[in-house]
Amino acid sequence: MSSSEKSKTPSQNQLYGQSGKDSSSAYLMSIVQTLSSSADFEQREKEKTRIEKAYRESDKRLGELVANNYQDVTQILKAFNGMTKSINESRDKIRKIKEDLNSCKTLLHFKRDELRKLWKDGVEHKAVLSMLEQVEQIKEVQDKMNTYIANKHYLHATDMIVQAVAMLEGPLYGVDALRELKSDLINIKERMHETLIEELSKQIYERSLPSFSLQRGSQMRLSRKDASVWGWSDGLDSPRRAPKLEGSEMSSSKISYYEVKENLNSNPQDNLENFIAILTESLFALHKLPDGVERLKLSMKGSLNKLINTATQQIAESSGQQLDSMVNHVQPKYLNELLKLIFEQARYVAKTHQIFLNNVFRLTTSVSADHESSGMPLLSHVLYDIKDVWSEIQARLQILLSQYLDVRNTMSSRQQAPSGFDEPSMDISQYFSKKRPAKPKKVSLFRFDASQHAISVSSARQQIQQFEHDALGLSDNWHIVKVCKPDAFNITAIYKPLRSFIVEVEEIMETSALQEFITDFVQNAFLGQVHAKVSENIEAATRVEEEEDGHKCFDALRNIIDEKTRRELGVPRPLLQSTVTVDSSIQELQDLMHDLPNYADQFLNMICNVLRDYKDKCNSAYRDIVQHGSDEKRIISSMWAKDDDISRFLRSLPSWRSLQPRQGKELDHTICSEEEMRALNSKEAIILISNLSTDESLIPQQEIITDVTQMRTVANVHESLEWFANRLDLFADSLTPQSSLAPLQEELPTELPPISDKTLQSLKQLVQEFKDLAEICLLLLHLEVRVHCFYYLLPVAKQSNYAGPIDDLDPDSNVLKLNKDLSGMEEMMTQSLQPKKFKYIFESLGYLVASILINSVQFLNKINENGIKKMCRNILAIQQNLTNITLTRESDLDRARHFYELLYMNPDEVLNAVAEKGPQFTLGEYQELIKLYHRSFAGNPVQVQDARMQRLHSVMEKGQNETLA
């Protein structure tokens, strides 16, 4: 860079308006440096000329700028002058202030001791005023606490007393005038936790009785005041920090916090959860939370006892009865209501305990600085959880139920229930057999009760019993006043709600001690007692008594229910008292199946055993009626009723099928025509005649039932067992077998759970056996009436004389006996059997009698005209008697009378009538008629008889051919 270029720099800087002290100094230094570095005068002159030229140019330029910006320059100059003047004035003032300060400093230096004294006096007066203000506030603490506690604003009260005591033990520690007040406030603080614990207990236990007014426990009753002290709050809210827990269990690392607030303008009890949090927070602030937890844990037993007693009193008041007298009445419905009320209260108690425990957990797991110095460790033997609460509730309920179920007496006098109800080989007849006479007790000659050894042993035994009493939790002097009479059967009224409550408990605790207690009671005591009671009732109803001849008889088959009971049951005919008693016992067991559905299988097994035993008793009694002697011989009708072929035939007849209900309606008699009915009656008569009239012997008397009372018994057994079987059938149809459940099906809409297939099959088999026995009894009566006809009518032909003198025209004595016997049976069966069954027994009896009399012609040796008249009188007497019984004309007996009237004609006339009008009787009947005629009238050779027989054959064959054509 040349010197000329360098020289241009200052002028250019000047031209571009670079000014100021720093730039001017630098420019001058540059000029001086340039002139000093010049070697000759000429060079300096050149530089001077150049500078002068630049100056002129610059001055010219400045003049132009000033001319162009005159107004701005004028304003700047005026402003600059004003600023210069203000600066000068300020400098003068500062100088004066500095001088004044120096003067003050000098003066204060001379007054420093006096000023120090005045400052100390001011500090002392300020401290005294502050203390006086605090003393005034302390004096108002009691009144304000009274107001808070009276309104249950415990959080405000707790914060106030804690801070007041802290102030009295801190800043106001040396104030002797507050010594008495300090003592009072400390005592209030020490008792404050008792009020809080009592309020907690009330909220947990007494609040569970919303409809029952309870007395408030002993606590401080104080007056109402303002809200804040020493600026703690604005009188509305007293916030405190408490951990907020998301879920029932959380680690401390997951704890968040929320403010527990207490609104002075609302009732704190309106929000239970917040109120419990306030009480817990207050105990925490007092460092008494461990004491509160321990007190609640220890008082749980007594509080639950008191709660149950209060609920008992409430049930008594709602029933309108005196509590002391309710224990003497069997009214388990009140026990059911009591348990339902206790269950609701127990749920509330457990819920409130859970709220309290959640707050305890939040506070004790807090790691914040505010809670580190709380100094309240919770030991493991003090802290409890919700399972402990439910365990204590179950323990109280167990003691309560043991009193109402009379467990002690039931266990001591219980009957062992059968271990295997479904065993078909199980013999329970021991319950119905005769009891052996009790052995006489041995009388002791002397005793050692008053000896020293006996006294010491008795004392030790009492100590052991007391220890066991304490172990069961019964030593808390809990006096239970009962709402009904203690009895083991109270379990039937309470089992379902109790079971539902146990399910709730098991969801919380997985296992339930109460369930174990109920299971043990039902299985080891109640089932045995039920079995003993049922056995006792059935034993009384089915007792066996000795007759005078040493023959055992089922005495209960002779006792029938009274008219009142019959109307109540709605049955058309009397039933056996034993059957009704057994049915009542079965009904009780069915009710127990519904009351205790979890034990339905056991009760059904018990029902099967009772039915099996009663069936055996009925079969045994039936055998005693139909069996005579010791050689296992039975009456004829019984053997025929048991015969498969005869029984099958009789059951196939329309008269029998009309008795069988189908869909609630009886079958119509129009299922068979008149001819078909006659053909079937004829077949029945042929079967009976072929079995009873084949030889000359008569029916022995021991092979029929001669006692009408026994026939009435059989009729009663039939009606009773049929009614009983129908009821059992309906019961069996209402049960659901396990095999009918689908693989994924767990529940059914039925009330009873599914029953095991084996037990249900046993029940249905027993029902069928009762039906079979009832049908056999009806068949027996049907056949016995017919056997009686054979018994009395066979001797009419075999033993009576029909060729006697003219004065012997009265009906045969056996016919009169038959009429008397039929009338007696008619009177008996009318009272014992339903009309349709009575009709079944006597229906077609006229056809059978006619067949017997017609068939008996072969047993007549001779007959004359007087004998014919006598036989017709026999038929007429029987016809009149049967007409009176059946209320219909027995036209079949007209046929028998017409048959014997043919004897008035000779055989040729009979054959001519057959040829002209056709046969009215069978070939065999005409043959026996011709044979009797030839026996009665001598002088007819055998050839004549054979010729007439031959002609009879040809006439009958011709008649058959004409009929077929």
Provide structural commentary.
This protein has 965 residues and is mainly α. The protein is elongated, with a radius of gyration of 61 Å. Mean pLDDT is 77; it is low at 1-18, 211-257, 367-375, 419-446, 466-475, 663-670 and 742-749. Helix content is 66%, strand content 2%. Strand 3 (544-546) and strand 4 (552-554) form a beta hairpin. 31% of the residues are buried. The chain contains 36 helices and six strands. Helix 23 (636-642) packs across helix 28 (757-798). The strands form three sheets. A two-stranded antiparallel ribbon has the order 1-2. Strands 3-4 form a two-stranded antiparallel ribbon. Strands 5-6 form a two-stranded antiparallel sheet. This is Exocyst complex component Sec8. One of its GO terms (biological process) is vesicle docking involved in exocytosis.
Low-confidence stretches: 1-18, 211-257, 367-375, 419-446, 466-475, 663-670, 742-749
The tally of strands reads 6
The SS-based structural class is mainly alpha
Question: What is the beta-strand fraction?
Answer: under 5%
Rounded to the nearest angstrom, the distance between the terminal CA atoms is 171 Å
**Overall spatial form:** elongated
InterPro entries: Sec8/EXOC4, Sec8_exocyst_N, Sec8_M
Protein name: Exocyst complex component Sec8
Domain Exocyst complex component Sec8 middle helical bundle: 274-464
Function: Component of the exocyst complex involved in the docking of exocytic vesicles with fusion sites on the plasma membrane.
